[in-house]
Amino acid sequence: MPDTGSARSATSAASATTTALPPLTEQADRLVELGVHEIAGLPAAEIRAFAAGCSAHGHGALLAVHPDRAPASALAPLLRHRGRPGFVVTDMDDVDRFAPLDSVSLPDSPLYVLTAPDRGDHLANRSPDEALPALTAEARSPMLLTEGIHWVVQQPAVLERNHCFMTIGSRLRKANGALDARTPAVWISNGTGRDGRARRDAPKIGWCWAGNRHTWLGFASTTGRHGQDTQAA
Fold first, then answer.
1. Distance from chain centroid for Cα 215
2. β-bridge partners, 221
3. If you average pLDDT over residues 85-96, what whole number do you get?
4. Best CA proximity match to 65, nearest among 86, 85, 46, 93
5. Measured between alpha carbons, how far is 19 from 158 in angstroms, rounded to an integer?
6. In this model, does residue 12 exceed pLDDT 90?
7. What's the per-residue H, E or C state across the chain?
8. Could you give the CA distance from residue 126 to residue 7 in angstroms, rounded to a whole number?
9. Spatial distance between the Cα atoms of 131 and 162, rounded to a whole number of angstroms
10. How far apart are CA 80 and CA 85, in angstroms?
11. What is the largest CA-CA distance in the chain?
12. Predicted pLDDT at 55
């Protein structure tokens, strides 16, 4: 079962959702510093040039690499919390098979930006099955797991104990076409069970059942995704 971590103050909760993301050009530098361009097979100059050309999306946009280029398993170890590297839980060795829902449209581009990312705290204590229609009603799109990882890479404060988030835009389809009941999430390990004591406080890529509720998990979302052909949209 997912571990909830310790309680935190309301002030801490507010800070995580209002702290500004770095400018897109700084985000590009961060990805290059971490070697994401090598994971994605892209020149560092291409990432920097794309970010520089996306100023039309304004303050608060998030730079992301298409999951086909940079899968969750490769990005997770780049996360940091209290000096601990991120990891994927042992019973999610199929993490890279979690793909966008049919309702989530990605730009046909190796790089894109997300506008107005939000942690979805107001949806905490709803199940993924309940949260998805609520996001749709708000004209918001649920984040993919890789997008959530990009967000924490660029804005570590968004990940807090007892106030983490699901990324229900990514789901796994079974051979018969039905959705696997697991929904991915990003939270902080307590160092218990199979995580191991050495991973206490580490960023953790895990999962929750689609029908279960958790008071400490919001639902990350965005107002839109924009690629190379829609930079000025």
1. 19
2. 118, 142
3. 97
4. 46
5. 8
6. no
7. CCCCCCCCCHHHHHHHHHCCCCCHHHHHHHHHHHCHHHHHCCCHHHHHHHHHCCHHHCCCCEEEECCCCCCHHHHHHHCEECCEECEECCCCCCHHHCEECCCCCCCCCCEEEEECCECCHHHCCCCHHHHHHHHHHCCCEECCHHHHHHHHHHCHHHCECCEEEECCCEECECCCCCECCEEEEEEECCCCHHHCHHHCCCEEEEEEECCCCCCCEEECEECEEECHHHCCC
8. 19
9. 18
10. 5
11. 48
12. 79
pTM: 0.90
Give me the torsion for CA of 141, 145, 146, 148, rounded to 10°.
70
- Residue 133 tokens read as 């229609």
pLDDT for the residue numbered 99: 97
Residue 13 and residue 8: Cα distance in Å, rounded?
Answer: 7
Q: Using one digit for the tens of pLDDT, what is the confidence trace for 106-140?
A: 999 999 999 999 999 999 999 999 999 999 999 99
Single-letter amino acid, residue 90: T
- Residue partners of 212: CB distance under 8 A and separation at least 6: 127
Residue count (the chain): 233
Report whether 229 contacts 107 (CB < 8 A). yes
Q: Which two tokens stand for residue 67?
A: 């999951």
Share of the chain above pLDDT 90, in %: 87
Distances (CA, A) of 156 to 17, 53, 70, 132, 231: 11, 25, 19, 25, 26
